[in-house]
């Protein structure tokens, strides 16, 4: 009886659910691609901030605006100071001793409860209710200034541009000199929503965002999918907001970087909700990162369909998807040429001189990985080593080729406030 009760109790916690990175909010692409890319782009600014604070014997205070279930805490604490070598153990930029306080606020009580359950036990972490529709909430302004004002995964797309001007100018007034501000929006011209590209580019545009992707494909048309408006935006439009916020607050806002996140693997690639020509790429890329699961590599190839009248976008996507395809095809050729008995490649396909440099580098790396590990006999070397590495190589290719203008699912700006 006690045994039955214990099993039922365990099942109710949800922690007895089968763990898989193939689907859901925390799928493999979210963990091994999107979180990691964000962390890599944050690395230079965060490392420099920590270095400066350490010199002054000061610690770091972080404000997570629209923190949702609190995952920004992990994101911040997982940023590394550099590409770690294979020997070092601790490589975090913000080590626990250098964090003074992390405060997350959100308007949604249920998400705050979830945040509290997941992260509330850390003594320096606090979650609070706060609404930023009219700027930084008063309750947040009462705190001493923060070193990092941080948003993640499209939070600023919930607001009109004039609301974002108010949020950012309030941050500038509240922050001390050289604080960081990270603004995260949805990109305006992702291939996932090519059907929406025609809306006038000189007007604010909100898409009806469907969170259909959280349901397996088979049940999507039987459930009532949540829909809400989200602003999709370009870098130029963000710069108008930033310039206006700088003018209103009197602070200088220095651009440190912009990056497009998830061009190849945005969540709506697989739903086709806003572009029926999108191939379902996220599913096989999730599979690349999953241990002991082999992936049909042909299913990662994208047959880009251009949209007439959008020459510069078509040119970018043509180059981008052709480069990804070339890397996948190159990997398929290398696998087919690998002689498992001899432990060598019978032939190496050409890396052509006119390929973009990041593609050449990714191809050479895939060759070295396959040559280096293809001979391993135990464990499934293709599923467990080679395929994840193809995932990381595609990720690197996306990072190197993205222009930071609004062509991915996410568009993130990293800024420094100068006063
Ligand atoms: C796309 S989610 C991102 C959540 C979280 N930052 C993450 O990375 O998972 C956007 C978040 O903004 C919050 N939000 C929307 N409107 C808000 C408002 N007016 N004030 C505060 N938070 C708001 C939502 O409740 C939601 O948690």
Report what the structure shows.
With 419 residues, the chain is α/β, with parallel strands linked by helices. It has 2 domains: 18-263 and 405-418, Vaccinia Virus protein VP39 (Rossmann fold, 3-Layer(aba) Sandwich), CATH 3.40.50.150; 282-401, no CATH class. It is built from 11 helices and 11 strands. It has helices at residues 2-12, 28-55, 72-77, 109-119, 138-141, 161-174, 235-249, 282-289, 311-337, 357-373, 381-401, and strands spanning 60-65, 99-106, 125-129, 148-150, 179-187, 205-210, 227-233, 252-261, 338-339, 344-345, 410-418. The strands form 2 sheets. Strands 1, 2, 3, 4, 5, 6, 7, 8 and 11 form a 9-stranded mixed β-sheet that branches. Helix 9 (311-337) runs antiparallel to helix 11. The longest helix is centred in the first third of the chain and has 28 residues, at 28-55. The radius of gyration is 23 Å and the shape is globular. It binds S-adenosylmethionine (SAM). S-adenosylmethionine (SAM) binds next to loops. The site of S-adenosylmethionine has 18 residues, from loops.
Task: Describe what is shown at a glance.
The protein is α/β, with parallel strands linked by helices and 419 residues long.
Structural class, from secondary structure content?
A: alpha/beta
Bound molecule types = S-adenosylmethionine
CATH superfamily of the largest domain: Vaccinia Virus protein VP39
CATH class of the largest domain: Alpha Beta
First-to-last CA distance: 66 Å
Mean pLDDT reading:
94
Helical proportion, percent range = 25-40%
Whole-angstrom Rg: 23 Å
- SSE order: HHEHEHEHEHEEEHEHHEEHHE
CATH topology of the largest domain: Rossmann fold
β-strand number = 11
* Main sheet properties: 9 strands, mixed
Query: Could you say what the CATH architecture of the largest domain is?
Result: 3-Layer(aba) Sandwich
Low-confidence stretches: none
How many helices? The count is: 11
β-strand percent reads 15-25%
